[in-house]
Design a protein that fits this description.
alpha+beta; Methylamine Dehydrogenase, Chain H; Cytochrome Bc1 Complex, Chain D, domain 2
């Protein structure tokens, strides 16, 4: 039978079955359009799976028993997260945008019954155990909305650190843990790490838990069912090493950090990789209902780690804290019997989870659960949730859910629940997939997204080989990379295309077909700037307007090197920023578009804020003049640049 005709008949049959059941059919997906499932949340009665369809701007309800979409909820903007009330009657959906909202939906009908205004790009909605409050992380405002659900009103916004993107609440509701995606430290510091914001829900006071040096891309957190621990999934980068190899996690490792909920402190960090095989891009973490198994999805390697929680905690508890204790207990025997002699060795121990973790590949399979090697694409696991011994994973690039039964340990066959027709990938969509795919990397240690989350920055300095050893440079955003040649701080790649291909060869350590690089090019060209959180209703504030006049003042001279519309002249300049490890004086002039989200600043990342560039670095004093600018003028200038 003709493949296209077969696909049409299959879709028609599915729609007829839904109609017979009395359900509302989900909207059709046009060619070249995608659903983009990013999360899946189980209803309290475990009868329904709610799927966050980011690209399709809707929430799909999947009947667990039937394994089919039964209704859809249209959202005003791309949904980023979902929480379900304890009685299952209401859904709380965060929708992105500069003026983000929480949509309240009737779970039975799918109708939107209310909206609550929150901040810029809200996500990670978390309900208090008593259902009285909703907490929402406003990613680009760097704060947390506290919402009174009785009044459907935002009570307060509490500051977070940077890009709050995931959250979990303690069992008693007293503490909210919020993951900040990126570090805020100067990148040339010895210790650079993301942190967890800890919110006391009674006083709304905050404290912080700092993760280990190199922690970045902190995408997920969950609290164990017994309330004792919080598990945090993230990348642990070895950014202080020259990028000469990938073996044994030389550049990036992938980690799970364990937090003590009562003491609000970091217990330790374990690696999710194997000695010769990375487990790149940990994305979501959850546990089974009994807390015995910790599950982590890996967006880069298309698998799920299933970790023995009891064994993990027992092993961590049995490791000496000091070398003296290790010697006294015989753990330090001089023969290397133990790979982790003390607790400080654990974050570097690629064998720590041996016999405690199973890697479950999400292999190719047929649309209706048939396992074969020629089935549809299984790629891009994101959020996951659990019913009994089965877990369900949203497959972003497959427009499907993967279902795996943990009890089937011998083979782990997966079933796919299609959420729409099998996606037909455009070149740009394939490039989007490749950018996040560790199959393009030697031993799967990392993907492009490991160093460029959202194709932007990881806030770390890297000593890449393209300009010699010993001179680390700050990571750069991929936004506009093809429109603003040359690439790299020293301009060693003449075009964005050259940079993409060099990255595959010298950072991923792979040889790939040219069409892979072309696809990544096309994806990066589709990137568009996110409106700045410094704008007011999409317009420059009064301070930014004053700053704009200063920016374009000929005497000050900012616009000479940063002219409109790209805010770069595409040239190299000496701005007096040469550091002790640099081998030249002039550096590429970056675009200032979206600079509000790319800290730290300058080629060596020495400044955490833009204001420091002017007040400490005297940036612009060579090509123009900062003399005569008051502190208010500097603040206004910074406000304009941060609004671009």
């Amino acid at each position: 039978m003709n493949r296209r005709l077969f696909l049409v008949l299959r879709i028609v049959t599915a729609c007829m079955l839904l109609a017979v059941a009395g359900s509302v059919s989900p909207p059709a997906v046009a060619a070249g359009e995608y659903l983009g499932p990013t999360d899946v949340v189980v209803s309290p009665d475990q009868a329904t799976l709610y799927v966050v369809q980011y690209d399709a701007r809707r929430i799909d309800a999947v009947d667990v028993q039937a394994g089919k979409v039964v209704r859809s909820i249209a959202c005003p903007a791309a949904p980023t997260g979902l929480a379900v009330s304890a009685d299952g009657a209401k859904l709380f959906i965060t929708c992105e945008g500069p003026n983000g909202v929480v949509c309240i939906a009737d779970a039975a009908t799918g109708g939107i019954v209310g909206q609550i205004a929150v901040g810029h790009t809200p996500g990670a909605p978390v309900l208090s155990p008593d259902g009285s409050r909703l907490y929402v992380s406003n990613r680009f405002n760097n704060n947390i909305s506290v919402i009174d659900l009785a009044a459907n009103k935002e009570l307060q916004r509490v500051p977070a650190i940077r890009d709050p993107i995931a959250a979990a609440i303690s069992k008693d509701g007293a503490t909210l843990f919020v993951c900040n995606l990126l570090p805020v430290d100067p990148a040339d510091s010895y210790d650079v790490a993301a942190e967890i914001t800890v919110l006391d829900t009674a006083s709304l006071a905050t404290s912080n838990i700092r993760l280990l040096n190199g922690s970045s891309s902190v995408y997920s957190i969950c609290v164990s069912p017994d309330g004792k621990y919080a598990y945090v999934a993230h990348i642990l980068s070895r950014y202080q090493m020259p990028t000469t190899q990938l073996e044994r996690g030389w550049m990036n490792t992938n980690a799970l950090s364990i937090v003590d909920v009562e003491t609000k402190s970091l217990i330790n960090t374990v690696l999710l990789d194997d000695i010769d095989l990375g487990a790149s891009n940990p994305y979501a973490v959850t546990t089974t209902a009994d807390g015995k198994t910790i599950l982590v999805s890996h967006a880069g390697t298309h698998e799920v780690s299933a970790i023995n929680a009891e064994g993990l905690h027992q092993k961590l508890a049995g490791i000496p804290k000091t070398m003296e204790e290790a010697k006294a207990t015989g753990r330090y025997d001089g023969r290397g019997t133990y790979s982790s002699v003390t607790v400080n060795d654990v974050p570097n121990d690629l064998a720590f989870l041996v016999d405690l973790r199973r890697r479950i590949p999400l292999r190719r399979g047929g649309h209706w659960g048939m396992i074969n090697d020629e089935g549809p694409l299984v790629n891009g696991p994101r959020g996951l949730d659990v019913i009994g011994t089965k877990f369900y994973v949203a497959l972003y690039f497959s427009d499907a859910l993967a279902v795996v039964d943990l009890e089937d340990k011998a083979y782990y066959p997966i079933k796919l629940i299609p959420l729409g027709p099998e996606p037909q990938l455009t070149v740009a969509r394939r490039g989007h997939m490749f950018f996040h795919d560790a199959d393009l990397c030697f031993q799967k240690w990392q993907s492009c997204a490991s160093c460029h989350p959202d194709a932007r920055v990881d806030a770390l300095n890297w000593d890449l080989l393209n300009d010699g050893l010993g001179n680390p440079k700050n990571n750069k955003s991929m936004l506009l990379v093809h429109q603003t040649p040359p690439s790299m701080s020293e301009g060693v790649r003449s075009t964005g295309e050259d940079a993409v291909r060099a990255g595959i060869r010298h950072i991923q350590f792979m040889v790939r077909p040219e069409e892979d690089a072309v696809a990544i090019d096309e994806y990066l060209k589709t990137l568009t700037p996110v409106p700045s959180p410094h704008l007011v209703d999409g317009q420059l504030s009064a301070a930014a307007l004053r700053g704009k006049a200063i920016f374009f003042n000929e005497k000050v001279g900012c616009a000479r090197c940063h002219p409109e519309p790209l805010y770069t002249d595409l040239k190299m300049h000496n701005v007096g920023s040469r550091g002790k490890y640099d081998r030249r004086n002039d550096f590429d002039t970056p675009s200032l578009i979206e600079v509000w989200r790319t800290a730290p600043y300058m080629h060596d990342g020495k400044y955490s804020t833009l204001k420091e560039i002017f007040t400490e670095g005297r940036h612009g004093a060579i090509g123009g003049s900062l003399d005569g600018l008051s502190e208010q003028d500097i603040d206004d200038l910074v406000e304009f640049v941060l609004s671009l």
